[in-house]
Amino acid sequence: MFALRLVRTFRPTALAQRSLVAGAAGAVGFLLLSALSYAVAHPDRPGAALSRLLWCAVPLLACVQFAASAARTDPCVRPREGLDAVGMGPARLPLLAAVSTALSCTAGCALALLAFTGLREGLGGAPPAGAAAELLGSGRELPRAAVATLLAVPPLAAAAASAVATRLRALPSARTAAQPRTPPPAPVGLPWGVAVTAVGLAVETYAADRAASRPGPDVPLPGSLDGLGPGVVGGWLLITLGLVLAGPGLVHLCGLLLAVGRPGALRLLSGRALREEAPRVGHSLGMLCAVAAGALATARLYGAPGGGPAAGPLTVLGTAVVVVCAVAGALSAAAEFRAARASATDGLRRVGVPRRALRAAAALRVAALLAVLAPLAWLIAELAALPLVR
């Protein structure tokens, strides 16, 4: 109830962000229900059902990452004197963030259930037929326990990620207050992210080789949710997770590269800012890099001889969720970066630093990120598409 009252005080931008989180969770819930319907309607195709369920994990990961990024900039979880008076101090703000995110995601999943049920029963009174019946798995009753379990996954995962993100938000500032002259430590997730990405590429290559060695047609392209086997889909999921884990380390690496050699004041300022804010913006930029790699890999696959089948509606929906969540998460991370650097920027202006120099520093940070993340996305895309087009 307290979280709902705080929502009434939100600005339009914050309400739009909450609505976007709810919409993303609802779309993921719709995809999960579609995977369940397919499994119930086709018990003789466990491999295809597993592939559809694994495809849902990619938009789920994007939705969870965006929910965590949105929670870090949520006005209701910022320390305020009024919250301290009602017992919501900094130690209990993660709980408030988790409840607020869970409410938004639950509302989205409830709407997804209503929409999915209405489509299965037929909006005009007649049940769907043909491709629509195959898509929705109509004619079979869904297990209620399975429906409740699947629809509980997006709210619980997003709430847990929001609580962790809110809890970790105060750690960089606390370290800076304790040691203002100590260089920011490197994030520990880069080696783990590289390892997970390498495992994902290995799993995808192994699965593609096994599928190609069997008698029959070549490995199909991802025109539908079950176009690829579970191994290839699981490999792509691990690649995405690895890039998200490696994101903070990559941003920190960009800051180190700016300070190589004998940097001037502009390079020192830009590099220091990237290293300090890498834990805040790294995961969102890692997800954006994964989306760019996926887009390049898909373009490579569909540009191969023979092309690929037309993408189905569920594939389009999942792709839209991933792209929207990645772009919105990057914009939210940029807003958080600007808010975190506001005091430092004001201090530089007071000592006489011109606005042109500050804009040049921002442009230099963007150029450094593009110089590192763009080639990485291209390399991952080439390695991911290679086992499927050779």
Topology:
Blueprint: H1 2-7, H2 12-41, H3 46-72, H4 81-85, H5 93-121, H6 131-136, H7 144-178, H8 189-213, H9 230-258, H10 265-302, H11 313-340, H12 342-350, H13 355-389
Helix pairs in contact: 2-3, 2-5, 2-7, 2-11, 3-7, 3-9, 3-10, 3-11, 5-7, 8-9, 8-13, 9-10, 9-13, 10-11, 10-13
Describe the overall structure.
The chain has 390 residues and is an all-alpha fold. It has two domains: 1-168, no CATH class; 183-390, no CATH class. It has 13 helices and no strands. The chain has helices at residues 2-7, 12-41, 46-72, 81-85, 93-121, 131-136, 144-178, 189-213, 230-258, 265-302, 313-340, 342-350, 355-389. Helix 2 packs across helix 5 (93-121). The longest helix has 38 residues, at 265-302. The chain starts with a helix and ends with a helix. This is Integral membrane protein. The chain crosses the membrane at residues 20-41, 53-71, 91-116, 145-165, 236-260, 281-302, 314-337, 358-381. Keywords: Membrane, Transmembrane, Transmembrane helix.
Rg is 23 Å
Cα-to-Cα separation, first versus last residue: 57 Å
Major sheet, described briefly? none
Uncertain parts: 172-179, 216-223
Count of separate structural domains: 2
Instruction: Work out the helicity level.
Output: over 70%
Q: H/E order of the elements? A: HHHHHHHHHHHHH
Number-wise, the strands total: 0
Mean pLDDT: 79
Protein name: Integral membrane protein
Keywords: Membrane, Transmembrane, Transmembrane helix
Transmembrane segments: 20-41, 53-71, 91-116, 145-165, 236-260, 281-302, 314-337, 358-381
Organism: Streptomyces glaucosporus
